[in-house]
Amino acid sequence: MSKLPKANQFFDISDYGRPIAKGIATYFKNTAVTPIHITISFIISGLLAIAFLVNHHYWIAAFFLVLKSILDAADGELARLKKTPSYTGRYFDSVSDILLNFMIIIAIWHVTKSSIMYAVIAFIGIQLQGTLYNYYYVILRNKHNGDTTSRIFETKTPKAMKGEKQSRVNLFFNLYLLFYSVFDKTIYWLDQKAIYDNRWPNWFMTAISCFGLGFQLLLIALFLIFDQIHLIIPFFIGYSLLIFVFILIRKVINR
């Protein structure tokens, strides 16, 4: 099930695991397994990847990073199949992602014995990349009657949906604000007018999907497979320069 109407769908290079994710969701559709269970499984996969990375088992770490990405897509697919979308699941997913991202970068820093300052800059860059992609993607979905569980501006605690408790929504929303608000505000400051634009070519969305978390994890996995772990942190620092390139392109498209 897509988050966008057919006319507005684009090839998302960060979503390479979607076919497998759909299969997983279909398998668990008529079971007691919930989207939260799948989210917990991707947390476990991410932690296993970190454990193997720290112990220099890079191929196995790469496998669990890619598996984490697939499971990250499967929880949302299962929520749509079961028709049980929830803000709890949405924020729990996001909070889990950012904590795992931080732990992955710290693990890479530990193994490579690189500068902690560079590691922090790389982490910030990774988060800003993903935030820009999600910012544009959520704008597109809201403009074309797509999935609206994610909001353009996460400033007010949403009302709990059917089947979830408001207290849990409040908890995970506040955690989301704690971890993400600085990145959301930074991207909005860099490109405030994006919310008013109507031109979002599919080729542009495909291009910027290289900032999606799935593709970021795939890149890290490839560096590990080719035993180039020492290049991961400097690569993502340089990769962040594309943020300004994509913002410029969007402005040119809509001028």
TrEMBL record:
<feature type="transmembrane region" description="Helical">
    <location>
        <begin position="91"/>
        <end position="110"/>
    </location>
</feature>
<feature type="transmembrane region" description="Helical">
    <location>
        <begin position="32"/>
        <end position="52"/>
    </location>
</feature>
<dbReference type="InterPro" id="IPR043130">
    <property type="entry name" value="CDP-OH_PTrfase_TM_dom"/>
</dbReference>
<protein>
    <submittedName>
        <fullName>CDP-alcohol phosphatidyltransferase family protein</fullName>
    </submittedName>
</protein>
<dbReference type="Pfam" id="PF01066">
    <property type="entry name" value="CDP-OH_P_transf"/>
</dbReference>
<dbReference type="InterPro" id="IPR000462">
    <property type="entry name" value="CDP-OH_P_trans"/>
</dbReference>
<feature type="transmembrane region" description="Helical">
    <location>
        <begin position="116"/>
        <end position="136"/>
    </location>
</feature>
<keyword id="KW-0808">Transferase</keyword>
<dbReference type="GO" id="GO:0016780">
    <property type="term" value="F:phosphotransferase activity, for other substituted phosphate groups"/>
</dbReference>
<feature type="transmembrane region" description="Helical">
    <location>
        <begin position="231"/>
        <end position="249"/>
    </location>
</feature>
<keyword id="KW-0812">Transmembrane</keyword>
<feature type="transmembrane region" description="Helical">
    <location>
        <begin position="202"/>
        <end position="224"/>
    </location>
</feature>
<comment type="similarity">
    <text>Belongs to the CDP-alcohol phosphatidyltransferase class-I family.</text>
</comment>
<feature type="transmembrane region" description="Helical">
    <location>
        <begin position="171"/>
        <end position="190"/>
    </location>
</feature>
<keyword id="KW-1133">Transmembrane helix</keyword>
<dbReference type="GO" id="GO:0008654">
    <property type="term" value="P:phospholipid biosynthetic process"/>
</dbReference>
<keyword id="KW-0472">Membrane</keyword>
<dbReference type="InterPro" id="IPR048254">
    <property type="entry name" value="CDP_ALCOHOL_P_TRANSF_CS"/>
</dbReference>
<dbReference type="GO" id="GO:0016020">
    <property type="term" value="C:membrane"/>
</dbReference>
